Amino acid sequence: MSLNYNIIGERLKQARINKKLTQEKLAEFLNVSFQTISKWERGDTYPDISTLPEIALFFKVSVDDLLGVSKAENEEKLIKQLEAFDNLTDGKARESIIIELKKNYPNDYRVILRYMTHLIHFSEPLDVMSKVTAIYENIQENCSNDKIRVSAKRHLAEYYQKLAEAGNSGITFEDCEKLLDEMPRMKDSQEILRSFLYSENHPEYFNSCAAAIETSLNLLCQSIAHLCFYNSKYSVEYKIDIVNKCNSLINTIYDDKNYGEAWRIIIFNTGHLGRLHFLKGETDKALEYFKKAASLAKEFDLLDRKTVLKSQLLNGKEFDKHSQGSNWVAKEHLEFLLNERYPLSDEFKNSKEFKALF
User: Of the residues 135, 151, 183, which one is the last residue of a structural domain?
Assistant: First the structure.
């Protein structure tokens, strides 16, 4: 992109006037001479590239606004960059992109939210506490998009849980609960409301109903898992029965075996059945389910990013595998569970059959 010094100068001058600042006062804020400001505004010279984010932040505009990029071009460019960020699985690459985006779009709340979540999930919890809190408060006080505000609240609740468990932060689980009390109820979600309120002739009727089914199924299976999978109150036999029933329901919804939004659930449930049979001493049965889980994990990892469901109920609905998490690799997740989380004996894990799973 070629730079038009006159446009940059005009935009800088207009921003200064709108803020009712003299050249001298702006120069003082930016730690440059007023002659430098004058040259910028006349188009004789151009601010150093490293100074642009500071100027943009001061005037609460984007760098592209200063450069004279049109809003349409700016929006198209930003969306592409956000998609590139969301599609990345490498943590370091994500970090470099989100930092650059934050410099160029310091007041775009889509960028700010992603920066907040990156700090939460890719940093030591105590190291970023002040930054995360400040970003969250900025979003809640100044962002008009309720979806972004609610998403920020959810991520902060998850972050507070981490801090409460870690200790030494001054954050307790009661702080997390206060946030949870402010979250929408399940029946108030956009998926459920759209499926109820859209008429059959609405163009999004099918997609909204399908989204409500997938979301509800996932929440049901996750809630059952959270309640009983590791709870000593329930017998191993009952746990096996309830997991099989969950899997049967999933297979009824996804009879084409493309499990859509339930891929994580079906892989985890199948691996968990192997764990439960191992606890019963049924090693052959355990290995059978571990093989099934490994096969499902490999199948998911080989899927194209976007596929179309062909099940009788959800036929035609598009599935984007990145909805499971753009950095989620099923094989690696399952290997971690089998080797680190499940209480399998060394003898079993050293067997030829177990090592051949992957």
Answer: 183
